[in-house]
Design goal:
By secondary structure, the chain is α/β, with parallel strands linked by helices. The protein has helices at 2-24, 43-58, 72-80, 141-152, 167-175, 191-199, 211-217, 229-232, 254-266, 268-274, 283-286, 296-304; strands at residues 31-36, 62-67, 86-90, 101-117, 132-134, 161-163, 181-186, 202-204, 223-227, 237-249. It is built from 12 helices and 10 strands. Strands 1, 2, 3, 4, 5, 6, 7, 8, 9 and 10 form a 10-stranded mixed sheet that branches. The longest helix is centred in the first third of the chain and has 23 residues, at 2-24. It is globular and about 60 Å long. The protein starts with a helix and ends with a helix.
Length: 307
């Protein structure tokens, strides 16, 4: 009986020591996911922040964080080069980049805004001739779309004075009279545009007539979409729209991409609270990511929920 008690006590000590040893082992490092977005007042950043919060809450072994960038073209370079792990990009820039990224989803459509002062002389695209226009920061999807639009409208070259400013700087420059107009491509409502409306009278310029010329010369991804009065309280217009995608490195593990896709779809209502554009996500349109193929992990998720 004594021997049994000693053995039991020894076993208890061993168990405690083993438990202590286990407690002293360092916890595994979390998987870090940096999400390449855009300007702080653009949709990508708002969407990315909300998505990162969901990832961090639902995947304890992952730490996600949204990062400010110049947007689409830079995002594809960052993700494809391994500096960041996820990113948002317009579809029209993809043929100009390599194929080191894969799609998680088509998330919504970016609408091209051409913003001018309400008391200024610009009332149609042709009125930009000879004037100063911000076409977006170098490396942004806005810059690519805006320059293509100016080209098909015979406003390329030195026909307009080009300024390459990001969204926030463009809005500030318009307010100070340093530019006559600026372009921005994003899912409405765009926070910077809303803030500008509070500060001064502005208007949006009709661009829908240029969708077909853009499709013919550059890419069939372009479509026409409306910005109704209800978005900004401004006169409704039709404009050029461009799908945008959430992309990942082609080397990201399938299981992780599966989980990221699941969270994107399952929590789209929560994402929609952060920004209405994010709430337009749905599995049927999410898989339409041409010319970019879906990542195998994302494809597996969509297959798993297929009726």
């Amino acid at each position: 009986m004594v021997r049994l008690r000693v053995s039991s006590a020894a076993a208890l000590v061993v168990a405690v020591l083993l438990g202590m040893a286990a407690c002293t082992e360092p916890a595994p490092e979390p998987v870090r996911l940096e999400i390449a977005t855009g300007s702080r007042t653009g949709v990508y950043y708002v969407f990315g922040q909300a998505y990162a919060e969901i990832i961090n809450r639902e995947l304890p072994h992952v730490h996600a964080e949204a990062r400010v960038t110049t947007a689409s073209a830079e995002n594809v370079e960052l993700v494809g080069g391994g500096q960041m792990q996820l990113g948002f990009t317009q579809a029209d820039i993809l043929p100009t980049t390599g194929n080191q990224v894969r799609a998680v989803a088509r998330v919504y459509d970016d609408l091209l805004h051409l913003v001018v002062r309400a008391d200024g002389p610009v009332r149609r695209l042709a009125d930009l001739r000879g004037r100063t226009v911000s076409v977006g920061a170098p490396g942004s999807g806005t810059a690519i779309t805006a320059n293509r639009l100016l080209d098909v409208a015979d406003l390329g070259g030195d026909r307009v004075k080009i300024s390459q400013l990001g969204l926030d700087a463009s809005a500030e420059a318009l307010g100070k009279g340093q530019v006559d107009a600026f372009f921005f491509s994003g899912g409405p409502p765009v926070k910077a545009v809303e803030q500008l409306i509070d500060a001064m009278p502005i208007r949006l310029i009709e661009l829908g007539e240029w969708t077909e010329p853009l499709r013919v010369r550059y890419s069939e991804v372009y479509v026409s979409r409306d910005i109704p009065f209800s978005v900004y309280g401004l006169d409704p217009i039709s404009t050029v729209a461009d799908p945008n995608y959430l992309v990942v490195s082609e080397n990201m593990p399938d299981d992780l991409v599966y989980e990221l896709t699941r969270l994107l779809m399952q929590y789209r209502d929560e994402l929609g609270v952060a920004h209405p554009a994010a709430g337009r996500l749905n599995p049927q349109s999410a898989i339409a990511t041409a010319p970019l193929p879906l990542h195998p992990g994302a494809a597996r998720y969509y297959q798993s929920i297929k009726p």
